[in-house]
Amino acid sequence: MSGAILLGQDISSRRLEICNEAGDVLLTVLFKDAIKPVA
User: Fold this and answer.
1) Are the C-beta atoms of residues 7 and 14 closer than 8 Å to each other?
2) What is each CA distance from 20 to 9, 23, 27, 31, in whole angstroms?
3) Is 39 helix (H, G, I), strand (E, B) or coil?
4) For the residues 24-31, what does the mean pLDDT come to?
5) Which side of the chain, N or C, has fewer Cβ within a 10 Å radius?
């Protein structure tokens, strides 16, 4: 994802899903919420 960000690509629809051992999604983090845009 860092390469996509450096190239200025839109990652707003991408997300990271944190799952338990059974594969159940416990938490979803949107990339747009996890990074700060550079002005």
Assistant:
1) no
2) 30, 5, 10, 20
3) coil
4) 93
5) C
pLDDT at 11: 83
Predicted confidence at residue 39, as pLDDT, reads: 66
- 14-to-17, 21, 22 alpha-carbon distances in Å: 10, 22, 23
Query: Which pairs with CB-CB distance under 8 Å and at least 24 residues apart come from 27-34?
Result: 31/1
Q: What is the DSSP letter of 38?
A: -
| Residue 29 and residue 15 in contact, taking contact as beta carbons nearer than 8 Å | yes
Per-residue pLDDT tens digits for 5-24: 789 888 888 899 999 999 99
- Dihedral, CA atoms, 2, 13, 16, 29, nearest 10 degrees? 110
